[in-house]
Amino acid sequence: MPLAVNSLEANTLYIAFALLPFAFGVAWALAARRVRAGRSRRDAWLHSLAEVGAVVGSVPLLFLGLTSREGANAVQLVPLVDLADLAGASPRRIVEQLAGNLFVFAAAGFFLPVRFRIGLGAVALGGAAAAVTLEALQFALLTGRVVSVDDALMNALGAVLAALASRPWWRRTRESAAPEPRAAVLRSAGRDWRVTSFEVSRGTDRAARC
Fold first, then answer.
1. What is the DSSP code (8-state) at residue 66?
2. What are the residue boundaries of the structural domains of the chain, listed by start?
3. Where are the transmembrane segments (predicted)?
């Protein structure tokens, strides 16, 4: 059975990589539509790639997480037990378990803060909620997997670590989206003086105190 599972995982990854040109085409179409609507080219591409990347990076791993394996479901609700068991496991199993659980929601954690104005707290809560939902689906669909609290913790941790990795991009996006101070034109003695709204309000306050 492990050979079949590995074959399924390999084929899923092959298909995902083969569909990357199509995903890029969707991102290009979304970006072009946003540019025509008046958005800056940089923000249009950044938001479009973030939307497509969150979907393309999550769907294959969610599919693998919900595929059935032989045997009955098992439940492990004691934290850190499964992680401690990995200490005596083979290197291949350690890599599969840790990398698999960390990457399930990594794409969503990486791209969603770039697209939406959310912080690490929201990513952590969203990752935890999504991880619990995934574990519940594995149990309800009788996939023959171990429903583990450690898996959910690693899923949420992967989303947070990915969000930290993309932080330079989502912080830059928010700074570029911040509204600039509105300028007002004051006419005095035949000359135009361009000042910001803050300066206008400060001048109004001074005049009121005089």
1. T
2. 2-177, 182-210
3. 12-32, 44-66, 94-112, 119-140, 152-170
